[in-house]
Design goal:
The chain has 19 helices and 21 strands. By secondary structure, the protein is α/β, with parallel strands linked by helices.
């Protein structure tokens, strides 16, 4: 594997609207990120992904962009953005922004002009079709529910949107549109951006011409996941993007790619891949149903282990996945992957260690490092997320009552991760002096940065230990480049693996069970150096390691032939 500047670093995602508010309007802003850069530096962060701060009407919380080269006033202005890039660079932090180019906002000048003249040049920037007799071009279902086609005013023209109706899809088949996008990307990279997280990119290639697929719900529509399996030729677009943007700047790129095929992985993340990395979503899609959240199954610890190991095997010798347990589109990982008995500080450290020590680039989502949890929503009115509201209706249509529907949506809602960051135990968790745009989790009095910063046994301190270990000269080569070797996969509730380097090995053990678990330990393991441990001690005797309930331990092992 060709070594890159970003290998060995730890990344952090900020959802700006909920991070830190400096002007009291209840919304996080760029000045807030600047004020907290020292916190991120102390944590050990070297790559920072900032979710969209572009000009937007916020139909989908900024992922509907009205101007790619302007900052929305609720976050600040371009001078703030430029200062953020400068201040981050001074602290050794590379900044990524979201690249949202499958779609834009219906308020973007391109789309406004396309609606005015569907047959003009800007009409070709989108998928516009004339409809006769009310027959839509295809029966695809939007990710947010309903048909992907929306009528333009009182005309017989319709436009395609695979997400919200205020997010018209851009027509990547048009080379003029692609060049507009590349110019915009290079403009940002020239400004000092280190790269991009690329949103929903697998959607840019549609199977054409449009056609119907077998319906998978009573609405007569078909899930986009099924549709996109038919799409061919996306690599032509992605390789062109790489060559005309990322490659010119030695930029880092991480793609949001779902359902990629094994044979395609080198094209995505190999040495000559279109992206530096893609996120591993195997755990997040596990148990999900095309019928909706109500029909989905929450993965247990053994499911989680299997998904992680399958991804590690797929990527070995090819490239790096970016590893997560949560992001702005998912519920809090500790409330989702951990059984009820494990949703405590020890269990949270266990889950952290299991994902963090895998091969790949670890991403931390804001608040994850202090163990922030899902919100207890008491009504659908407390939920802002458009996707959650759509799924709530899906639940009701499937026959669930309102209480049952709310319970389902509360588990999966994206708003779980979007509640304001919990800085301290003052009003609103120290996030704002105003009224927060989204409700603060009431547990901020117990779970916050201030209460954990000086506590050596806190979750925050544990994350700092893990990040320091990734940078430790003695173990860095093994952690970053060593092969992942799963162990004892048949043992339920145990997640065990080696990270095998040329001169050293690291053994990672995690007991997800509510009772002690004994695992065999070879002599090399008995002689191992304890690098991380979420318990007070480690019991190794009689050729066995006895793991306490929810114990996670990382052992460093020197190869015999190297002293």
């Amino acid at each position: 594997m060709e070594k890159k500047w970003w290998h060995g670093k730890t990344a952090y995602q900020i959802y700006p609207k909920s991070f830190y508010d400096t002007n009291g309007d209840g919304i996080g802003d760029l000045r807030g990120i600047i004020e907290k850069l020292d916190y991120l530096q102390e944590l050990g962060i070297e790559i920072l992904w900032i979710s969209p701060v572009y000009l937007s009407p916020f139909a989908d919380q900024g992922y509907d962009i009205a101007d790619y080269c302007a900052i929305d006033p609720i976050f600040g202005n371009m001078e703030d953005m430029e200062q953020l890039l400068k201040e981050a660079k001074a602290r050794g932090i590379a900044v990524l922004m979201d690249l949202v180019v499958n779609h834009c906002s219906d308020e973007h000048p391109w789309f406004v002009e396309a609606c005015r003249d569907p047959e003009g040049p800007y009409g070709k920037y989108f998928y516009l079709r004339q409809v006769k007799d009310g027959k839509l071009p295809c029966n695809w279902r939007s990710y947010f529910g309903g048909p992907v086609w929306e009528r333009i005013g009182e005309t017989d023209w319709y436009y395609l949107h695979v997400f919200h109706k205020k997010q018209p899809d851009l027509n990547w088949e048009n080379p003029e549109l692609r060049q507009e996008i590349y110019r915009m990307m290079n403009w940002w990279l020239d400004k000092g951006l280190a790269g991009f997280r690329i949103d929903a990119i697998i959607n840019i290639k549609k199977p054409l011409p449009f056609k119907d697929y077998p319906a998978d719900r009573e609405d007569g529509l078909c899930d986009m996941g099924t549709v996109l399996k038919d799409a061919q030729g996306i690599m032509e677009f992605l390789d062109e993007m790489r060559d005309q943007t990322f490659a010119l700047h030695n930029a880092f790129s991480v793609g949001e790619v779902f359902n990629n095929k094994q044979e395609e992985l080198p094209d995505f993340i190999g040495d000559q891949g279109c992206f530096s990395s893609i996120f591993d979503f195997s755990q997040t899609v596990e148990g999900k149903s095309p019928r909706g959240w109500y029909d989905s199954r929450v993965p247990g610890p053994d499911d989680y282990k299997r998904c992680c190991f399958e991804s590690q095997r797929k990527s070995e010798g090819i490239g790096f996945f970016s590893n997560i347990i949560e992001n702005h589109d998912e519920p809090r990982g500790v409330s989702y992957y951990l059984p009820d008995y494990a949703q405590n500080p020890m269990g949270k450290k266990l889950l952290a260690a299991m994902y963090f020590m895998l091969k790949g680039l670890p991403f931390i989502y804001q608040g994850q490092e202090i163990g922030m949890e899902n919100m207890a929503f008491s009504s659908i009115e407390e939920i802002d997320d458009v996707n959650s509201r759509c799924e709530y209706q899906v639940c009701l249509d499937a026959g669930l009552n309102r209480e049952e529907a709310l319970k389902v949506v509360s588990l999966y809602s994206r708003d779980n991760a979007r509640t304001p960051f919990q800085w301290d135990d003052s009003a609103n968790g120290g996030f704002t002096e105003g009224t927060p745009w989204l409700g603060v989790n009431p547990n901020y009095r117990e779970i916050n940065v201030q209460s954990q910063e000086k506590d050596p046994d806190s979750i925050l301190s544990f994350y700092k230990q893990m990040i320091r270990l990734r940078k430790d000269p003695q173990w860095k080569e093994t952690i970053v480049y060593g092969e992942t070797v799963p162990l004892m996969e048949e043992v339920s509730g145990l997640m065990a693996y080696l990270r095998r380097g040329r001169e050293r090995e690291i053994l990672v053990l995690g007991n997800f069970n509510p009772k002690e678990l004994s695992v065999p330990a070879g002599q090399s393991m008995e002689e191992g150096q304890i690098l991380l441990n979420n318990a007070e001690s480690l019991d190794i005797q009689g050729g066995n390691i006895s793991l306490k309930p929810l114990q996670a331990v990382v052992l460093g092992i020197m190869h015999k032939n190297n002293g």
